[in-house]
Amino acid sequence: MIKFATKYIGTRYVWGGTTPKGFDCSGFIQYVYKNFNIAIPRTTARYTGLLKNSIPLQKAKVGDLIVFTGTNLKIKKPGHAGIITEVKPGLLKFIHSSSSKKHFGVTETNYYKSGYPKRFLAVIQMPSPSKREY
């Protein structure tokens, strides 16, 4: 799944985008998970129902969903998300489609070396992807 997702690094950010022509964060996540037969809501606002499956950050695995608030930290609702790509002691990376001018489009971010920890809401344990041949 991560190999599939990383093929889209550099794809531009498009608000409401759901295709390789341009993704927003949830459009990218839905596109990747759908390729592996994992259903997920279209928008981060609808991730609220997924929070019941949250696990501690320390138990995160590659392929899990990491969810953040939007840029307003006072609103403790899902506003941004990504797919965890790497987990090692002291290292957690995730892939997402960012609207930030600094990292515009699909990019991989080192969680601990970013501003995302202050926006962290949850890690959602996702089912293992079903394998598909191409």
Automatic annotation (TrEMBL):
Gene3D superfamilies: endopeptidase domain like (from Nostoc punctiforme) (3.90.1720.10)
Pfam family, one: NLPC_P60
Record domain NlpC/P60: where: 1-128
Coiled-coil spans in chain: none
Record PANTHER family: MUREIN DD-ENDOPEPTIDASE MEPH-RELATED
UniProt record similarity statement: Belongs to the peptidase C40 family.
Name listed for the protein in its UniProt record: NlpC/P60 family protein
Organism listed in the record: Photobacterium iliopiscarium
Lineage: Bacteria, Pseudomonadati, Pseudomonadota, Gammaproteobacteria, Vibrionales
